Amino acid sequence: MPILSAASLGAALKRGVGSLYTLHGDEPLLVQEAADAIRATARAQGYTERGVHIVQGAHFDWGAVLAAGQSMSLFAERQLLEVRVPSGKPGKEGSVALQRLAELSVGNADTLVLVILPRLDRQTRSSGWFGALEQHGTSVALEPIDRHALPGWIAQRLGRHGLQMASGEAGQDALRRFADCVEGNLLAAHQEVEKLALLYPNGTTLGPEHIEQAVRDVARFDTFALSGAVLAGDVPRVQRMLDGLAAAGEAEVLAHYALAEDIRALKRVKDALNQGRPLPVALREQRVWGERERAFERIVPRLGAALIDRLLVDAHTVDGIVKGLKHPDWPHDGWDALQRLGTRLARLCARAARA
User: Fold this and answer.
1) Contacts with 240 (C-beta within 8 Å, 6 or more apart), sequence order
2) Which residues form the domain of 272?
3) How confident is the prediction for the chain on average, in pLDDT?
4) Residue 215's pLDDT is what?
5) What is the CATH number of the domain that holds 309?
6) Nearest residue to 78 (alpha-carbon basis) of 104, 49, 57, 118
7) What phi and psi, each to the nearest 5 degrees, are found at residue 111?
8) pTM higher than 0.85 for the full model?
9) How many other C-beta atoms are found inside a 10 Å radius of the C-beta of residue 76?
10) Confidence class of residue 73 from pLDDT cuts 50, 70 and 90?
11) 210 with 337, same domain?
12) 116 - beta bridge partners?
């Protein structure tokens, strides 16, 4: 039976719904959308009843699942039987039950079976029960959208709302900026697209300014804005933001990550410059875009390599402090240590920019 991707599932459903589908993947948005597409098609074709079984614990009743797979509806209507295995490990009894369920689905027009699994390792994909699901039904592998493909994915989603990116390098830069902000969180990318669709009417051409504004709007008072304030050398704002993040209950490790990531990026770009790479090339290779790119252009040429190395040592020290370690030359409180690190970095950025 066919093995589909998330992109090809919709076209397959238009040709008709099958009797058994297996979804496997760790990206919540893709799993949700694939399951919703199958459910909607099933409803349209008369599968009006739905039963959901979530496999939890060692004493899960697989007999109830098999009974549901063999039973007719009380009112002789078609049913959708949904079996979710969050662990991806059904156990010995579950393995037998899933193989039997797969066999029962063949030629069964009254019950559509939907099995939802996480991303599976090679050993699990080689198991007998998963092989039976693939043999007797349609398997949908929901692979994550990698960084290289993410800008195209975003552009396609924007197109569904009648929005398009500006042509040329400006539009591509804006898309890359968008992708950098949501990489690793496809649900956040989807939400950003939906918000842009609410902000701008059908037919709008989006430029860098639209993306920058949207990112600021959803960033809230968080680490994205903290990074901008630090690189701008705005010491009072950095101090206010760290106080605000602490008051809001933000995790210290996230604030530290924002500061440390800027320091690491400065180190990587500086090393590239010292190896003879042109600054624009070094910035592009390190995925430094938008306002952050302009800040790096001002700062990097004027920061010495030894100074950046010292900042890396400080960042490492503060990493230990926010995780509970102590250092004789630093405050013991994590937020106080972050204040010192953030203030020190902001002052150096301000000094470099003035120079």
Assistant:
1) none
2) 223-354
3) 89
4) 61
5) 1.20.272.10
6) 49
7) -130, 125
8) no
9) 7
10) low
11) no
12) 23, 84
